[in-house]
Amino acid sequence: MRQKDSKHFLAEAWAFIAIAVVAFVGGLLIGDLGSSPKHEKVYVTAAEEATETEAGTEAEEPAPEEATATSPNAQLFTSAGCGSCHTLSAAGTTGTTGPNLEESLAPDDNTAGIEEMIVNPNTEVVEGYPANVMPQTYGQSLSKSEIHQLAEFLVETTPAKPNP
After folding, report:
1. Domain residue spans in the chain?
2. pLDDT of 93-139, one tens digit each?
């Protein structure tokens, strides 16, 4: 009688593992299927504001262009899938699978170092996060130019600094 119980338990365990694997793979596929292939360009213009001074009316100089969720580099960040795992307010993303880039990238991280982190993510893994979670294929799926754009965007929007 004992042998039947262990066989039954083993069969249930294998069935549970098979269902878990199917659910995981299905979740990955459904996550990708839900993304929109449609790309939309958004143009934002800022009206110049005039201020009154003692000498008369002068126009203020426009503020330097800041990275926003509608900037091309922010759109590259989200379209490459980075925002589904990472929080970055400049891109309007709140992912939690990977580290918050505003907190994990430091002033000693530079453009070249960030490019390396994108292409070879296991060379430097943030404490508290496991290796092999970030895709290892960005070196093949993104062009060198796109990788550089992403690195520059992260330097502009986090404590990281550009190359000296």
Report:
1. 67-157
2. 999 999 999 999 999 999 999 999 999 999 888 999 999 999 999 99
> Which residue is it, tokens 């996060």?
129
- Please say whether the dihedral angle defined by the alpha carbons of residues 50, 56, 61 and 63, taken in this order, is positive or negative: negative
Kindly report the number of other CB atoms within 10 A of residue 112's CB atom. 12
**Listed residue (137, 134, 135) closest to 98, CA to CA:** 134
Spatial distance between the Cα atoms of 148 and 122, rounded to a whole number of angstroms: 18
Domain formed by 67-157, architecture:
Orthogonal Bundle (1.10)
88 near 77, Cβ under 8 Å? yes
Residue range 64-78, pLDDT digits in tens = 344 566 788 889 999
Q: Which 3 state secondary structure label does DSSP give 78?
A: helix
DSSP string of 82-149? GGGT-EEGGGTEE--SS--HHHH--TT--HHHHHHHHHSTTSS--TTS-TT-S-S-HHHHS-HHHHHH
